[in-house]
TrEMBL record:
<feature type="region of interest" description="Disordered">
    <location>
        <begin position="321"/>
        <end position="353"/>
    </location>
</feature>
<dbReference type="InterPro" id="IPR036457">
    <property type="entry name" value="PPM-type-like_dom_sf"/>
</dbReference>
<dbReference type="InterPro" id="IPR001932">
    <property type="entry name" value="PPM-type_phosphatase-like_dom"/>
</dbReference>
<keyword id="KW-0378">Hydrolase</keyword>
<feature type="domain" description="PPM-type phosphatase">
    <location>
        <begin position="23"/>
        <end position="320"/>
    </location>
</feature>
<keyword id="KW-0479">Metal-binding</keyword>
<dbReference type="InterPro" id="IPR015655">
    <property type="entry name" value="PP2C"/>
</dbReference>
<keyword id="KW-0904">Protein phosphatase</keyword>
<dbReference type="Pfam" id="PF00481">
    <property type="entry name" value="PP2C"/>
</dbReference>
<comment type="similarity">
    <text>Belongs to the PP2C family.</text>
</comment>
<dbReference type="GO" id="GO:0046872">
    <property type="term" value="F:metal ion binding"/>
</dbReference>
<dbReference type="GO" id="GO:0004722">
    <property type="term" value="F:protein serine/threonine phosphatase activity"/>
</dbReference>
<protein>
    <recommendedName>
        <fullName>protein-serine/threonine phosphatase</fullName>
        <ecNumber>3.1.3.16</ecNumber>
    </recommendedName>
</protein>
<keyword id="KW-0460">Magnesium</keyword>
<feature type="compositionally biased region" description="Low complexity">
    <location>
        <begin position="326"/>
        <end position="338"/>
    </location>
</feature>
<dbReference type="InterPro" id="IPR000222">
    <property type="entry name" value="PP2C_BS"/>
</dbReference>
<keyword id="KW-0464">Manganese</keyword>
Length: 353
């Protein structure tokens, strides 16, 4: 079986949910790809005051994406920084622990893929509260073996009250609609970005035809242990790092919804086009999963001639519920902030997408 099927698989996994603060809908579709390597997580009630949403785009296999969909949000909850109210630090630690644990599993994942998939297939197979914490604590590289060679992007959005924290590693993306205007809350980590290129070269890698070492077309990911073998460098300085950009935004009354999606969507539509599409659909459709399904169908290519619209597709729309009596939030008219690599960014407004 090649990279593409003879006809696309258009069956969709869709889901809707809500709580007192948000309502969400999501949909995912295999499309033309021979296998489905996307995964996702949607927990409107991660705890009593927090919602968690994430998309994970696998490459070289689906195991790492499935692993993250099941465990990453659990690790955010368990970190001591989370209990202290520091969501940014807790999610950053979770990204690092993800690839560290995958390194510890190493070739076991390659040899026993079916068994591992059976354990982690469904993000909802357990709530994680009764699971032993067997993730390794070290954040440095583990270089005694080569696996797993598969990996995934990770883009997550965590909402608590009026604070939205977005963490991203890779080229999945989170976009917010503010009065119909699209603002990127994450940056696509492509190898030709100056910051990424500098790290890749310093770590001993190279870029050929826009790909890391001629093979991987993104510069940050969880997994991909073949690019994290330098024992003399910390995790954030490896050729391909799991280190996420963290962006913290204070929401205001003008904020309508966010969209998280894998690059199967963003390769076909710009951030503003997606926001416009959601707005248009919401005029006649109240079910957010149906809005996502229609976006997937719009992006699906009629053939595999040029590759665009042929990827797996996953999209989540999270709509903010408005309080019955609207109150002005402090500093509520500030623009969403553009993420600064490897740091928290607040207060810097930016223009454009």
């Amino acid at each position: 079986m090649g990279v593409y099927l003879s006809t696309p698989k258009t069956e969709k996994f869709s889901e809707d949910g809500e709580n007192g603060c948000v309502r969400y809908g999501l949909s995912s579709m295999q499309g033309w790809r021979a296998t489905m390597e996307d995964a996702h997580a949607a927990y409107p009630d991660l705890d009593a005051s927090t919602s968690f949403f994430g998309v994970y785009d696998g490459h070289g296999g689906k195991v790492v994406a499935k692993f993250c969909a099941k465990y990453l949000h659990q690790q955010v909850l368990k970190n001591e920084a989370y209990a202290a109210g520091d969501i940014g630090t807790s999610v950053q630690k979770a990204f690092f622990r993800g690839w560290r644990e995958l390194a510890v599993l190493g070739d076991k994942i390659n040899k026993f893929t079916g068994m591992i998939e059976g354990l982690i297939w469904s993000p909802r197979s357990s709530d994680g509260n009764d699971q032993a914490d067997d993730w390794a604590f070290e954040e440095g590289p583990h270089s005694d073996f080569t696996g797993p060679t598969s990996g995934c992007t990770a883009c997550v959005a965590i909402l608590r009250n009026k604070q939205l924290v977005v963490a991203n590693a890779g080229d999945s993306r989170c976009v917010i609609s503010r009065k119909g205007q699209a603002y990127n809350l994450s940056r696509d980590h492509k190898p030709d970005l100056e910051l990424e290129k500098e790290r890749i070269l310093k770590a001993g890698g190279f870029i050929h035809a826009g790909r890391v070492n001629g093979s991987l077309n993104l510069a940050r990911a969880i997994g991909d242990m073949e690019f994290k073998q330098n024992k003399f460098l910390p995790a954030e300085k490896q050729i391909v790092t799991a280190s996420p950009d963290i962006n913290t935004v204070e929401l205001c009354d003008d904020d309508e919804f966010i969209v998280l999606a894998c690059d199967g969507i963003w390769d076909c539509m710009s951030s503003q086009q997606v926001v416009d599409f959601v707005h248009e659909q919401l005029l006649s459709e109240s079910k957010l999963s149906v809005v996502c399904e229609r976006a997937l169908d719009r992006c699906l290519a009629p053939s595999t001639a040029d590759g665009e619209g042929c990827d797996n597709m996953t999209m989540i729309v999270v709509q903010f519920k408005k309080p019955e009596q609207s109150t002005e939030s402090e500093g509520g008219q500030s623009s969403p902030t553009e993420v600064a690599a490897g740091s928290y960014s607040k207060g810097k407004s930016f223009k454009g997408i």
